[in-house]
Amino acid sequence: MMDRGTRKTEQIVAAARELFLKDGYANVSTDAVARQAGVSKATMYVRYASKEQLFEAVLAEEMTRIFLTTDLLLKEDLPLEEALFRYGSGLYELVSSKDHLLLYRMVCEESRRFPHVGAAYYARGPKRGIRHLAAYLAAHLQSEHRDPQVAEAMAEDFFSLVTGKLLRQEAAGVRSRRKSTEQAAVKRSIELFMKGYKDVLA
User: Fold this and answer.
1) What range defines the domain where residue 161 resides?
2) Dihedral of CA 45/51/56/60: which sign?
């Protein structure tokens, strides 16, 4: 059973997420989050002393949700290309969700004033995913290439191929939202990845 303190924290983070998504980062105050969560200001400030800390908590929850889901898609018993397609498709679907892209835009905007916000997003999101994927890829490298740095570079390239175009187009407001187009883009990314690293994969 969830204890009262944990429940209060979850209420606060859920309220902050709702308000950030609805009103935007600049228009949300810690007092507004406390009211939305139904907690006192004292309860709020014990847990989150600033709006930046609240936003980082929302990002942490978002990244945990994404990677708890996608990490399960890397199945050791599947052929590598099939496993990567499942993983890439799942990653793309979660990262391209409306809520995630709204949070991503806020990160881009606020990182200019608060660099630690961008650093927190990267550490809890892409960096975490890259490390997990690198560990998976390392097991599929030829013995002479079985180097953690090689696997990490491969994982970084994979993330760039699968999500890079999405985020660039979203920032410019020109992204196609047709599912067939998105799936084809992921498939091309996996094919390019496999072709580019064919000489080091076992």
Assistant:
1) 51-197
2) positive
Q: Do 18 and 78 belong to one domain?
A: no
Other beta carbons within 10 angstroms of residue 144's beta carbon come to 7
Q: How far is the C-alpha of 187 from the C-alpha of 198, rounded, in Å?
A: 16
Longest dimension (CA), the chain: 60
Residues 140-175: pLDDT tens digits?
A: 998 888 888 999 999 999 999 999 887 777 666 666
Task: Count the neighbouring beta carbons within 10 Å of the beta carbon of residue 57.
Answer: 18
One domain for residues 57 and 67: yes
Q: Is the domain of 62 the same as that of 124? A: yes
202 within domain boundaries: no
Q: What is the mean pLDDT of residues 7-36?
A: 93
* Same domain assignment for residues 16 and 74: no
Provide the pLDDT for residue 176.
Answer: 58
CA-based torsion, 143, 147, 148, 154: positive or negative: negative
